[in-house]
Hints:
Layout lengths: L10 H10 L6 H12 L4 E4 L6 H12 L9 E4 L3 H14 L8 E4 L5 H9 L4 E4 L1 H9 L10 E4 L2 H6 L3 H9 L6 E6 L4 H10 L4 E4 L10 E7 L5 H11 L5 E5 L2 H13 L4 E4 L5 H12 L5 E5 H4 L9 E4 L6 H8 L9 E7 L7 H8 L4 E2 L5 H18 L4 H14 L5 H21 L25 E6 L9 H10 L8 E6 L4 E6 L3 H11 L2 E2 L2 E2 L2 E3 L18 E2 L2 E2 L28 H8 L9
Parallel strand pairs: 1-6, 1-7, 2-4, 2-5, 3-4, 5-6, 8-13, 8-14, 9-11, 9-12, 10-11, 12-13
Antiparallel strand pairs: 15-17, 15-20, 16-17, 18-19, 21-22
Helix pairs in contact: 2-3, 3-4, 6-8, 14-15, 16-18, 18-21
Bound molecules: adenosine monophosphate (AMP).
Amino acid sequence: MSTFSELGLKEEILSALIEMGYETPSEIQEKAIPQVISSTDDLKAFAQTGTGKTAAFSLPIIQQIDVNNNNVQAIILSPTRELAVQIGDQIEKFSKNIRGLKVVTVYGGASIEDQSRKLNRGAQIVVGTPGRTVDLINRRRLKLENLQWLVLDEADEMLNMGFKDDLDAVLESTPDTKQTLLFSATFPREVEAIARNYMHEPVEISAGTKNTGSDDVSNEYYVVTERNRYAAIKRIADVNPDIYGIIFCRTRRECQEVSEKLIADGYNADSLHGDLSQAQRDNVMQKFRNKTVQMLVATDVAARGLDVNNLTHVINHKLPDQNEAYTHRSGRTGRAGNKGTSIVLVTSREVGKLRPIERKIQKKFIKREVPSGKEICEIQLFKLVEKVKNTEINTKEISGYLDNIYEQFDGLSREELIQKFISVEFNAFLEYYSKANDINDNRPARETDDRGRRRDDENMSRFFINIGRKDNLTPPRLMGLINDQNITNNVEIGQIEILDTFSFFELDKNFEKETIDAFLANTPEFEGRNVNVEITKKRRTGGGGGRSDRRPRRDGGNFRGGDRPRRDSGSGDFKGRRRDGDSSSNRSGASGRVQNKSWGRKRD
Ligand code: AMP
């Protein structure tokens, strides 16, 4: 391993690096710095986020900037405003001992006039987002005739975000003589095309293997049903009271939903997505950086600019649409030499989607079990004990009350006292989790008995309904009928068994009473008959033959297109799903948790 000085950097830079606490170069720095200092060849670098690539391209450029020349000599393009600002800030720090070196950062959503004025005063290095950079070039405020270095940072992200035309425009308005440095964590076709079209026989370097995940990240997965995704996140958070992580969602709406639930359940969470104004995003990111927020629920794009090195976890609420994105997500943890865990929540049907990701990251996913209520209670109990042990005693404030308090506890043994104090906080938690089910979905995708019929599900209650095949009842019609009673949002429907004059259906057992009440209150009719529903405790093994794994969701009385129930062979046995939520959280236990805010959730 070399030192920064052995890489050929000059004294002014070395002294700044020492001040910043950079002791030894990272792998990408070791490879890129001497290469860019000693050669004008284009460079194609495979580097994940968090590997130190900012210094890898900035330091050799800073080293070679002519400070006596005020023309723009280097431009660095980055996908987001946040990342551009970080790079600009880093360059200022790296070059603080170099008199006359000026860097200007330009990005959309801020005054173009201010940025133009700064450019006018002279800057040798410009960091910019593609759109604003093109705008400034077109207005002739940014002149690149004397450019020597062009850096494309996170090229894959820039293309993902639709900046292809802007990149083409910038690349075409720069002199052929420049040196292009392209940094990307992944090399899909579009990035290769940029390299092919705009670079001349580039030298290739990589930190780690191409497209692979970091060795510092443990990739793990949990198999849960669709409706238990959220419950699993809560348990993961509860079993890791010091969690500091990002929960990735695919859409803004998903983000909003997950974060709202977490906040309502008393966790230190917030969301970061494109619907927020820049000021709101800055505010959320600041709270996350200073750990006021422990769990940030974010979309892929919004999380790009976040420079946090010590995340303990990344949680994939749902897998990303593109496998490439998993590399980016998991790369948010295990940075700068820290260890991290990247968790994926999958349904039994999605497990197969992990294989192509494994091939890409060249790592195996480890299967984990969603922690049981008992495990969580144990962990929280010892966390509480630790907290009590480490609590400082404010003698001054409490001394006046102590005699009275001692008197009240008179007669209690040390052991009894400890038990009582611990129970004050612990009981609510214990009560909440005493009702918690095992939420691992360990069934194979099609779990049937030896006659091909669906097995009983102990989380379901079985109901009798007085209509059947002769009333033209079909499983989809029965599901429609159940959904029309508005029992509760997206209640989970299990097996359906249609017989000639009556039928059975299963429904989440937490909603037994609500179901009966809803049918009683609504007194629905079906094909002219009054419908009547009763609970039947007697379960029959197996359903009526074929089954479907489709999980329709209810949305204002209609099944959504893609989620329509499908009829399999013969009689129907359909599975409906309430969307999410730990079933126990809909019950009394939830209130216990919200009140109990001190364990890894709200910091007091
Ligand atoms: P980057 O990949 O450039 O975003 O860097 C990730 C983080 O690692 C940043 O916070 C850097 O400040 C830090 N970093 C980069 N290189 C080093 C180094 N050689 N020593 C210590 N920290 C570093």
